[in-house]
TrEMBL record:
It comes from Piprites chloris (Wing-barred manakin). It comes from the Eukaryota. The gene is Ptrh1. Signal peptide: none annotated. GO terms for molecular function: peptidyl-tRNA hydrolase activity; tRNA binding. InterPro entries: Pept_tRNA_hydro (IPR001328), Pept_tRNA_hydro_sf (IPR036416). Keywords: Hydrolase, RNA-binding, tRNA-binding. This is PTH hydrolase. The lineage of its organism: Eukaryota, Metazoa, Chordata, Craniata, Vertebrata. CDD domains: PTH (cd00462).
């Protein structure tokens, strides 16, 4: 589960993916388990939920390069694009509304496009979190 955003720019609408991952880590009682993984240039926490082993990942790059971290982590943890869930902001959704999308285009989202390019696939499941238009 990868939270897209601009690392270090906490609290901005475009980093809502990382905020969701922080919340998920707290709910799964692994919030203290975040560690820097230099191999994929990301903060990583491992968790278990409903019998599934999860890799929570917050890329330590700017949005348009998030895919490089995710592709590296996919290789390290032997994951295919279909195993990856992206959590990212969506300007076209009202603030706080969420939607799940399987595959498809990036729809102009630079972080998603970076992931599609780095993984050579658009098969990732996406949790789109509405941030509304300015």
């Amino acid at each position: 589960v990868a939270g897209l955003g601009n690392y270090g720019l906490w609290g901005t609408r475009h980093s809502v993916g990382m905020a969701v991952l922080d919340r998920l880590a707290r709910r799964l009682a692994v919030a203290e388990g975040w560690r820097v993984d230099r191999r994929c240039c990301a903060d990583v926490a491992l968790a278990t939920a409903h019998g599934l082993e999860l890799v929570l990942l917050k890329p330590r790059r700017f949005m348009n390069l998030n895919g490089l971290s995710i592709a590296s982590a996919a290789e390290i943890y032997s994951l295919g694009p279909e195993d990856i869930y992206l959590v990212h902001d969506d300007l076209d959704k009202a603030l706080g509304k969420v939607a799940i999308k399987l595959g498809g285009s990036a729809r102009g989202h630079n972080g998603v496009q970076s992931c599609i390019s780095a993984l050579h696939s658009s098969e990732m499941t996406r949790l789109r979190v509405g941030i509304g238009r300015p």
